Amino acid sequence: MCLNRLWAPWRIGYVIGERTPGCIFCDKPAAGDDAEELVLHRGQCCFVLMNAYPYNNGHLLVAPYAHKADLLALSPAEATELVALGRLAERVLRGCMSPDGFNIGMNIGRVSGAGIDDHLHLHVVPRWNGDTNFMPVLDDTRVVPQSLRECYALLAPQFAELAKEDASCIAPPA
User: Fold this and answer.
1) Cβ 99 vs Cβ 93: under 8 Å
2) Catalytic: which of 41, 67, 119, 121?
3) Which residue from 30, 41, 42, 103 could staple onto 159, CB 3.0 to 4.6 Å apart?
């Protein structure tokens, strides 16, 4: 039998870290330090942040500021901005990372696979031809080739630039 190793020291905080009460989708935008909290863009009703434990490099999340569990609870403005920011996330990722495709969607409710089932969020996951290589197929392991901080430094300026150009991105609050 072969011993397989995947060096991912940044995950130890998740594995042994203290579980803090609260909701990441409420707490992260309220913390006030967007770079530290990996918040890439703020709109009026919703925001974009990086997934700290991504399925793939560049895995982003779009969530309303309001703690709501499903689409039916969103106001028309929240629903519109959620989609607008999902579109912005796709545009930024296309420009910065040139993916071959995307998985974009939501898991609503625990039974659907939602890791955080009481605060609705949209996943925007870039995909590349061949990103399902031997690691996930044979060993149920994904390799994310870029650190979160490097990815944030790549994406944040593009969010700022495109949000200035595109009124459909909904301007951040004054």
Assistant:
1) yes
2) 121
3) 41
Please state which of the four CATH numbers 3.30.2160.10, 3.50.50.60, 3.40.50.1100, 3.30.428.10 is assigned to the domain occupying 23-167: 3.30.428.10
Spatial separation of the C-alpha atoms in residues 25 and 117, rounded to whole Å: 11
Question: Is 121 annotated in the active site?
Answer: yes
Share of the chain above pLDDT 90, in %: 55
In this structure, of 13-17, 57-61, 135-139, the range with the lowest mean pLDDT score is 135-139
3, amino acid identity: L
Mean pLDDT of 27-45: 95
CA atoms 24, 34, 159, 152: torsion sign: negative
What are the extents of the domains in the chain? Answer: 23-167
- The mean pLDDT value for 112-140 works out to 74
Cα–Cα dist 133/136, whole Å: 6
Integer Cα distance of 26 and 148 in angstroms? 20
The mean per-residue pLDDT over the stretch 143-154 comes to: 80
SS3 readout for 144-165: CCCCHHHHHHHHHHHHHHHHHH
